[in-house]
Amino acid sequence: MNVVIANRQRTKKINARRLKEIVQALYSELNMKEAELGIHLVGGRKMAQVNWDFLQHEGPTDVITFDHSEGRAGSPLPAGGAHGMTRPTIHGELFICVDVAVMQAKEFKSSWQAEVVRYVVHGVLHLLGYDDLKPQLRRTMKREENRLTRFLEKSFALKNISK
């Protein structure tokens, strides 16, 4: 079980050790046996570049998931994920835009830290095979995302991911 966090943005200070603890708790709650995950915390400009380079979408987005599992190496997962496949292990990367987290926190009356954690949960669920392209699958994924985010909020003071 491994997680590597690279903070490549300057919008907010991040306590990578605390975020890593949160991800480890997520692994545990999901009963995951094996995980290799890289998390890149980036600003809006870098996220817009990644979004265009890999998905040909304009502008920044909240999270982009890359699945490096055998047979999918380097493939970004679109918002729809892996079309319902489930895997007991994950091997992938998440690009998370802290600038978007700050904006959406205001919109959803949340904290930017909780938004970042939600994006981690969302990306991990995609790596596990959850899909959000079709309405029924989106509802299923959103329920699990909400459950896991609530679990992490109860287990950790999410604001502590900032220094």
Task: Please describe what this structure looks like.
With 163 residues, this protein is of the alpha/beta class. The chain has a single domain, classed as Metalloproteases ("zincins"), catalytic domain (Collagenase (Catalytic Domain), 3-Layer(aba) Sandwich). The protein is built from 5 helices and 5 strands, in the order E-H-E-H-E-E-E-H-H-H. The protein has helices at 16-29, 44-55, 98-108, 112-127, 135-155; strands at residues 2-8, 34-42, 63-67, 75-77, 89-97. The chain has a 5-stranded mixed β-sheet, sandwiched between helices. Helix 1 (16-29) links the parallel strand 1 (2-8) and strand 2. Helix 3 (98-108) packs across helix 4. The chain is globular. The two termini are 25 Å apart.
Could you give a quick summary of the protein structure above?
With 163 residues, the chain is of the alpha/beta class.
Rg over CA atoms, rounded to whole Å, is 14 Å
CATH architectural type: 3-Layer(aba) Sandwich
The main β sheet shows up as:
5 strands, mixed
Strand content: 15-25%
What structural class results from the helix and strand content? alpha/beta
Give the helices and strands, then pairings.
Layout: E1 2-8, H1 16-29, E2 34-42, H2 44-55, E3 63-67, E4 75-77, E5 89-97, H3 98-108, H4 112-127, H5 135-155
Parallel strand pairs: 1-2, 2-5
Antiparallel strand pairs: 3-4, 3-5
Question: What characteristics describe this protein?
Answer:
163 residues, alpha/beta, single chain, 20% strand
